[in-house]
Amino acid sequence: MDAGGLLFVMMRPSAPLIEEFNEWYDTEHLLDRMSAPGFLSGSRFQSVSGEQPGFLTLYDLESVDVLDTPEYHRLSRENFTPWTRRLMRRIPRARILAEQVHPVGEPLEPTPFLTLLRFSGTRDIQADLVAGLVRAFEGRGGVRQLRVFAEKKQDGGVDHLALVGSSVRVAHLAVEDTIRAPIRHLRLVEEFVPHLFGTTWERWI
Prior knowledge:
Blueprint (H helix, E strand, L loop, with lengths): L4 E7 L6 H17 L4 E9 L7 E7 L8 H4 L8 H7 L4 E10 L10 E7 L6 H12 L5 E10 L5 E9 L9 H4 L6 E9 L11
Antiparallel strand pairs: 1-3, 1-4, 2-3, 2-8, 4-6, 5-7, 5-8, 6-7
């Protein structure tokens, strides 16, 4: 089974732009991306933690090479639509392309909550990190899915993302003792719920 890839896009629009941002993403941008070969699914989420609302999109890919295809290039950068170009200039974003390392090839399972954990500088400790995340989450009450991804950096380093799907909020769990030494590489924990078409983040507060 192929490892599969993940395109992770986080955007944090200012309050005046949230309504237009969601309309653009729901009616144009997501559909454009899903028209490209190799895009298997596109799922939107909105944060329920943090001071500024964040909107996360996860695209499951056949492989990390999907973004190098001519079909995808026809949708990107100089080929952005005017609406995309205007909003991209105004909204901060983080974009990560990563390979799935645990479990290989398993697609996203819909769940009421999604917890993101981001680790940096973990190139040489992937096996220990994955083992620690498995101990911390798999089999815990309410946890339905754990997926781990490796992002290869231009400088040769590797960061990791863990996505925990659950029926209850799990970010509060004490995981330091179970993840053990790799916990010192943890840089971000954020919680999300699925984005519902036509809604804004206040729906969940």
